[in-house]
User: Fold this.
Amino acid sequence: MRKVPVVLAAALAVSLAGCTLTEGDSDTGSGGKKVVLVTHDSWAAPKDLLDEFKNDTGITIDVRKVGDAGALTNQLVLTKDDPIGDIAFGVDNTFASRALEENVFAAYRSPDADKGAQRYQVDDSGRLTAIDTGDVCLNIDPAAFAAKRVPEPKTYADLTKTEYRDMLVVEDPATSSPGLAFLLGTIASLGEDGWREYWVALKGVGMKVVSGWEEAYTQDFSGSSGQGDRPIVVSYASSPAAEVGKDGKPATKALLDTCFRQVEYAGVLNGAKDPDSARKVLDFLLSEKFQAAVPESMYVYPARSGVELPKAWQQAAPQPKSSATLPPADIQQNRERWIDEWRGLVQG
Amino acid sequence: MGLTVEGLTVRYGSLAAVSDVDLAVADGSVVALLGPSGCGKSTLLRAVAGLEPPAAGRVCWDGADLAGVPVHRREFGLVFQDGQLFPHRDVAGNVAFGLGMRGVPRASARERVAELLDLVGLAGYEARRSTELSGGEQQRVALARALAPRPRLLLLDEPLSALDRALREQLALDLARVLTGTTALVVTHDHDEAFTLADHVAVMRAGRIVQTGPPTKVWREPADEETARFLGCGAFVPATVHNGVATCELGAVELPWAPPGEAVLGLRPTALRPAVTGVKGDVVQRVHRRDHVRLRVRLEDGHEVDAVAGVLDVADTVTLALDPDGVALISRRERPSGRGRPSSR
Amino acid sequence: MPLGFLAVFFVWPVVAILRLGLGEGGVLTVLASPETWRLVAFTVGQAAASTAVALVAGLPVAFLLARTSLPGLGFVRVVILVPFVLPTVVVGLAFRTLLPDGGAFAIVLANSFFNVAVVARTVAGLWSHLDRRAPDAARSLGASPLRAFTSVTLPALAPAIGSAAAVVFLFCATSFGVVLILGGSRLRTLETEIYLRTVELLDLSGAAALSLLQLAAVVAALSVGAVARRRRESALRLRAPASVARRPSGGEWVVVGVALAVVGSLMLPIVVLVSRSLAGGLAGYRALGSTGYAGSLQVSGVDAALNSVRAATDATFLAVTLGALASVVLVSLSRSRVRRGFVETMDTALMLPLGVSAVTVGFGYLITLNLLPGDLRTSPVLVPLAQALVVTPLVIRLLLPVLRSIDSRLRQAAASLGASPLRVWREVDVPLAGRSLLTAIAFGYVVALGEFGATSFLARPDTATLPVAIARLLSRPGELNNQMAYAACTLLILVTIAAVAIVESVRVPGRAAVGEF
Assistant:
């Protein structure tokens, strides 16, 4: 007898909660089409650009963030038979190979794909289109070196010198995406044999390993607001753009000879509900306006050529000319082994 | 007509707590259900209230079966041993609870609460917190709460046994006054309480009712030796009744109400008192009570018996005679297990 | 109904993802690896140590809350809940500041930091209703205050302590963020390893093997807790709290001092981050009205706060409704003489979500919920549902003991006075358990406000909550972003204190309510 009202109350509760929570969805309706863009946590885009796109095409982009690049890729793989969206953005060159092997993406070559993005293409299938690149490089705090009267380091090799003892903080490649990129950078630059010796040497001069970028950059690095005690950190080529002081000069500097290039791709998902609209969204991501906005909104460099960087970037965070890179298939094949070996060398 | 219970059986698993019980509570009468703890009397009460489903039999009010009527529609008031006042309501809130359930308007409810608090001797207690009351006060509030909605039948489950002795006696008298004219079923293990409160007593043992009748009748003539024991008889002697006088080896006693014939006398501790003539014996133990002395006396034939004496009777040797108020008579319908001699516990 | 919810939103996804993992084979390899057992040992060890620290720190606070009447206790009651809402990344960073080379020690401290409130409030709930006369009697028999405590009070509190310990152990065993930040890939637990294997490596068989181990550990912990609970929920003579609280005297001041020291150290990480928010003056706070340096956020900090409150209200409403329903069902079952074993099994089953990795459940959703109408897999509706999974067991732990302690004859008295079964609930159970319900709402609200995992996966950029915004700000370079992140933390703390204070200030009808658990 007491069950009936109880069930009614519960049903009411669920529907009420449902209502208040889903009302966010309803304002996107108004008759237009909707494309679900699955992406990683770092996605950001100026709202006026998205609104303009909606006005021009009638397509609302519904953004679903699902974690970091790895989480994104793996969730796409897990749901490939019934995808959680229509288009994905953020699978990078360290995970691209897995996504391609698992046939997550459908082929689509955007008309704008040959305006620079083709430089980063993974294969000829046209399933993944490069949207932006991010370069993981060592960042330094020039003021600290000036104060210590030690010359600023420039290359990988410099860091193993004893004068840079206890100055470097890096992220653990097992738990951090820039940490992994930096490890890959040393492998790409120093070769399968050289990287191991190099890391042993780094360990020898008091390198500090932390779990994530937040700890390394905002706490241990002396050049950021955290004012830690280590003047060298693994971060991005773009980071100095955010550390421009009141005098208009950047307080930090990226070492452009120590960079590894992460390329972020987008692709239309196999099984997308509205592939045509999804393709239009991909075109939009490659459009000049969107490409011009990626530096400030996501701290990355546009994949399209000839897009001018923001003023502050031109001086503080120019794009590295020669970043190291590795074929996605190699990364896919060796990632676990490299991380395990790294653990053995550095933490064993 | 009131309450009738026919062939009622209540089971807990395989155990029959109440078996095949018949009981009637006439409109306006108070019936006490008397028995030792564990005899099933509370279970019977709960079954009447609708709190226990019967395995067999019927509970009827004015002839109508109550089987499909849930507790809250039976209009039977219920008073527990320890009050069970709502701790989150004040006294008035407790008493008014049943009125609220029946949709009695506020103003008349307030009047009724005052009336009942007055009845139970707690006038002006409305705003007291129920958790601050003494045990006796809690019980009075519980009674007022149960009576407030004018129940058809009031069920009281050991209403006084949680209280201390002096309080119990006082409240028993008050309760008897309050219950006058009410239809009520009182469960108790205390025969004093039963006889104080009830017009009619039903003695229960091991799930069955073994005797019913007016209090005096049950007190004087228990149905069997077991019942007599429960009603305070510690020793039993065979006797013969002739012309309203029962004669046994301890002497003769006038019982004008006793039917003639072979019988067994049940002796309560007060059955023997010092007298001028009677059986002689030596006092082996004495215990002083408020207004009397309890004696243990070894008779000349070597048996020991209980007796009471006045405080000043301090001799070591006494002569004892039977007191009619201290004996019960068990008719020889069944043979007592007595061995022909005064048998002691 | 709660069981149906549990089946659809917990059992089904978890079983599905485990089956997928087990289907791949290789489970035995993982189970046979010594590395795996080191993980188990560290997980159980750090959880046990964290639980012990939380107990040692929580008991004096419980004494303070339950047995003393000092000014400002209301504030202490509220403020100890604050650690619950702080994003783990923030707490992790704060502990790194305080203990630069902490390692396992820092992990244990950080985990207990989150859970002192659980111990303090759970134990205080029972303690404040214990009769003061039992320890007094022990004292009169010659026991020292300490002896009276260990021989009389502690055994009486043991059930509450056991229950709190079980919950805390579960929280610590499955703690994720702080372990990752403070332990990196060197100090790993089952939880972080399951996360890495599932999310980054898609090694579902390895994750499944570890999940099974985790499940086994959790069931073991729950069984221990259930045994302790069984003892408690027997007849306890509860008293109104007012009659047991008094001004501390003599040696009790020492305990009060310790309790205040604990509360003080709980505040320490909070002070660290508030001071960081002020490091650059008020720039961070001014920025809260904006969307951060160069538009790092898509909503302003203030909007994020509003989003937080809105989302937490929904989630709390749902979770408390479900938790209360589950408690009602459980207590109705035990009242209606259903076999005890069945009720206890259900009780334990409802606790399981606390002990299973969120990522296991989350990835389970991906492969199951598309089969339901409406494809909830990436819907924001999942956020309150996922939070309900966590809050429901808490609500049950808070409500059930009180509901069980209500004398059935009290309910029968109400029924005999004409109250229908539903009315009996309204007139008896609800008022008596009201205090506990409020505590449950407060806890639920705090958990929901601080929720990060599910929210960060499922919230749209324009509906970002404060914890999501804080994490976002911290993940970007730039001084202003950093200051704004810490300012947002301060805002989150204020919102939390305000929300809890409002919930706790609701007057329960009737001043003598027995429950507060």
Observations:
- The radius of gyration of chain B is 23 Å.
- Residues 334-345 of chain B have pLDDT under 50 and may be disordered.
- Residues 165-179 of chain B form the longest helix (15 residues).
